[in-house]
Amino acid sequence: MTTRLAPGGEDLLDELVRYRRHFHQHPELSLQEHATAGFIERELHAFGYDSLRTGVGKTGILATLVGGRTGPVTLLRADMDALPIEELNDAPYRSRNAGVMHACGHDGHMAILLTAARVLRERATDIAGTVVFCFQPGEEGYAGNKLMIEDGALENPHVDRTVALHLYSGLDAGRIGVRDGPFFASSDRFEIDLAGKGGHGAMPQSAVDPVVGAAYLVTLLQSIVSREVAPQQPAVVTVGALQAGTTFNVIPERAALQGTVRAFDAAVRQQLPERIERVVAGLAEAMRLEYRFQYHFVYPPTVNDAAVNGVVREVAREVVGAQDVVDPHDTVMWSEDMSFMQEQRPGAYFLVGSRGHRQGGTPQHSAHFDIDERALGVGLDMMVGVALHG
Ligand code: NI
Predict the structure, then answer these.
(1) CA 104 to ligand 1 center in whole angstroms
(2) Is pTM, for the whole model, over 0.90?
């Protein structure tokens, strides 16, 4: 793998691997990345970054580097948190923290960004504009990105654009996945409570049965995506939890449903709560039930800006060659909290293939997840390349 844009070649790959394995051995859960943040801080100081912003959004770190040429302020982001998974790999660098594992590749993201901070500092005069290195906590469902924005991460300096990457086991090492427009889905959730009137299972005429109502509701909700959303617009309504009753011969008082809703298009996303509630209200009316409906907007869709994505695509062609810059059509309904920054600033999010011959074919969030570490060199070249491109 090349590390073409960064001086040092193989040495840098060694350093990337060393950092990645250090982070892999010492994973920490979301918003508890204290040792991780401490390590990154010490390294950044050693590289000569003296005015760091720390504790941003709990444990986040921001380091700013002013380049020698004029250009935009670009925020490069790496996420820092691991998952509550017991690692089942027996590699020498396996997790030393019981029940916690870097099973999503964030260890690699930190290694890439930290090494980029070192390389770019040595080449500051070549940088067009200013680079903000953003080490973000709590990506795995804790909206650490939003916490960092609330702590002012997009100001002082005023960030003009953002760039983030994710290692991806669905793509071969040496390939880069770039796609314009919506990239990852929104992720929202709902809770529905249906209240009826409990009674004897043998005397339904004197009860109002929430179980039958809940059963109809699960199937009725499926008609929203299939009948009300255009087939070209991906969306998902999943009822993941359904609770009612305690035994076989009693009609219970209530039934409770919880679900997740995903969409790529912001307008589709905004319409879904109304549509869901309309179905719930109609069903409740028809079945003589009372209902309570709660909807939580959690993560917006991650939408790529055409201009910033254009820079990413250009750099990707230099790094791996045009034939290995692909559109990841199989992009799953992942959600990603970088969406918050990309809602406020034009941004680009891309995938760096991490699947190798021996390693890296296991899906993200699996207890066997690992990467082909050559992918780290590609990620480094990308981040350095974007910063130098301006
Ligand atoms: Ni991840």
Answers:
(1) 5
(2) no
